[in-house]
Amino acid sequence: MENEIVTVIDIETTGLDPATDHITEIAAIRAEVGPGGYIREIGRFQTYVALPPGVEVPPKITELTGIKTEDLTDGLELCYALESLWNFAHGRTEIGKKSTLVAHNAPFDLSFLGDFYLPFGFACTRAMSRLIDPDENASLAPTCERYGIALNGHHRAMNDVEATLQLYAVLKEKAEVNGITYRNVVVDSPERPLTYTPPGAVVRTIERKQTKEVA
What pTM, to 2 d.p., does this model score? Predict the structure, then answer.
């Protein structure tokens, strides 16, 4: 298992449908990850994203994330936010490698970001959790709890990124030690059907005996 550079991302949105909803916040951390849970942070990126005219953050989303419509007044326009994220993630590192893009429930984030990840390849920590522990709840909060990872302020982008980075370091080692293929892999399941498949992704179908995931 070699050290690698990753860019862990998370977005908050006005809803679940990329065709009708909008990104409100983007956060990312670039870091070097290695064996034994080694993490060396390289940099951070965070921005609010301005909404189109007339669009507001629904009350239920404000209740979940704490983000209000007025918070986004000075946010970047989406095109500039994505350009800034691209520049942050796409830059080469001191060891001459591009970043692998990492997200928890990557199909959701990538459904809003489109083919943003294609030069990097991606890893989905939710899929990794299902591949390693197929009968456990793979949502971010319970997965972090299983591995003793603090998740403070869930559903704020940078807080989720911080936890996902730590989770990736743990799951990467477990997957590689056990010969589990996880890069560019997404998971479909009857209790949580896949609604978006990133181009080029490998789909694995896994059934879980326990109750439906909620977040």
Answer: 0.92
